[in-house]
Amino acid sequence: MKPEEAAQRLLTAGLAASILLFVVGLTGYLAVGCADLLGKILLIATMVLIATPFLMLTAVIVTHIARREFCNAIITMFVFLLMLLSLVLGLKH
Amino acid sequence: MEPLTLITIMLTLLPIGFLAALVGIGGGTIVVPLLTLVFHIGIKESIAAGSVTVVATGIASASRYLKQGLTNLRLGIFLNMSTVIGAMAGALFTLTAPPTVLYFTMSALLLYVGINQITTSKAEIARIESGSFAKIRGDKLAGLFKLSSSYYDKASKRKIAYNVTRTPVGLLASAFAGFLSGMLGIGGGVLKVPIMNLIMNVPMKVAVATSKFMIGMTAATAACIYMEAGRVNPFIVAPTVLGISTGALIGTRVMNRIRADRLKVIFGAVMIYVGYLMLARALYATTGIELPGCLK
């Protein structure tokens, strides 16, 4: 599988899952108004959305390695680590 | 929050998602002022919601553009290497220096590049028709990382090959764009697109698609931090994400059908608008003069 294909599939799946949860949560809130439970569903939807780019990068690394594109795999790993590092620095700050 | 307000937010953000997908920006620079000025949502909650919506437009657009063969994934990840480093440095620099001077600089830069994009829009078409994107030789770094590629342009009904060049300059410029983004808290699409298009010989449509892909990645980090800090209000995020994603998905269907020169004019106009917002903010901070649409 090409890295582009893996990235596209993961992004589509992540977006679809989060949108589904957003729709369920928001429709439920507008219809029933149970803010506590539906707020949690919306929060999970947000988490799924935010986690998607990280998962996508992992998939791209795996496909690059499988295709023996080691230069691109190293660069992608480096970007992934940088994102994690900025996340850690941001959380500490 | 009132159900009517939630629906209004969703519908208002739909055209912004459309525009963001069309020109390769995250949309945060438009969403945040809109949420604060029009819907009277607190600035901290608006910024947090803005960062999540940038992730949403990034993912929605990137998934479609990857399928259309427009996104240059290798180039996006390669440039993100220096962008993320620049953004980290910029975010740290913000702690020690007031960004007012940078707002003035950034606004001047955006206004200049915005006007430049509009005035050179016809040249893009001429380059596509003459095949000059493929005639320029790619550099060694671009060859090593397989950055050069091609795409099918639906508007001109032809396959456009392009060779990525001046990669080291592009890397440095991306680091600078990241630095400004980190300092000013913006996604940086307004800088990434011209860097790829004007410096690195990347066609406008590929630059837009690749910029969307890059923005989605970097914004996820900021969104995580806001989430951990408890600033993400899911009842504000839900309608913004649904509205902006729907708009972005429609935008991705339209972008490749638009003539490249028109796309550059739209992009230039957006840059001039964002430049104006920056100028308004800097003027307010230094002189107290409040221009229309100013985000205090």
Question: What order do the helices and strands come in, and which of them pair?
Answer:
The complex is a heterodimer of chains A (93) and B (296).
Chain A: H1 3-31, H2 35-66, H3 70-92
Helix pairs in contact in A: 1-2, 2-3
Chain B: H1 3-23, H2 28-37, H3 43-67, H4 73-94, H5 100-119, H6 121-130, H7 132-135, H8 140-144, E1 149-153, E2 158-162, H9 167-184, H10 189-199, H11 204-228, H12 234-255, H13 260-287
Antiparallel strand pairs in B: 1-2
Going by helix content, strand content and strand pairing, the class of chain A is mainly alpha
Can you tell me the residue ranges of chain B where pLDDT is under 50 for at least 5 consecutive residues? Answer: none
N- to C-terminal distance of chain B: 24 Å
Strand content of chain B: under 5%
Element string of chain B (H = helix, E = strand): HHHHHHHHEEHHHHH
Q: Approximately what portion of the residues of chain A adopt beta-strand conformation?
A: under 5%
Which structural category do the helix and sheet elements of chain B fall into? Answer: mainly alpha
Task: Indicate the mean pLDDT of chain B.
Answer: 85
Q: How many structural units, i.e. domains of chain B? A: 1
The number of E-state strands of chain A comes to: 0
Using the CA coordinates, give the radius of gyration of chain A: 17 Å
Fraction of residues in helix of chain A:
over 70%
Question: Mind describing the biggest β-sheet of chain A?
Answer: none
Walkthrough of the structure:
The complex is a heterodimer of chains A (93) and B (296). Chain A has three helices and no strands. Chain A is mainly alpha-helical. Chain A has one domain (3-92). In chain A, helix 2 (35-66) runs antiparallel to helix 3 (70-92). Chain B is built from 13 helices and two strands. Helix content of chain B is 75%, strand content 3%. Chain B is globular, with a radius of gyration of 18 Å. Chain B is mainly alpha-helical and 296 residues long. In chain B, helix 2 (28-37) packs antiparallel against helix 3. In chain B, a hairpin with a 4-residue loop joins strand 1 and strand 2 (158-162). Chain B has one domain (3-101, 122-258).
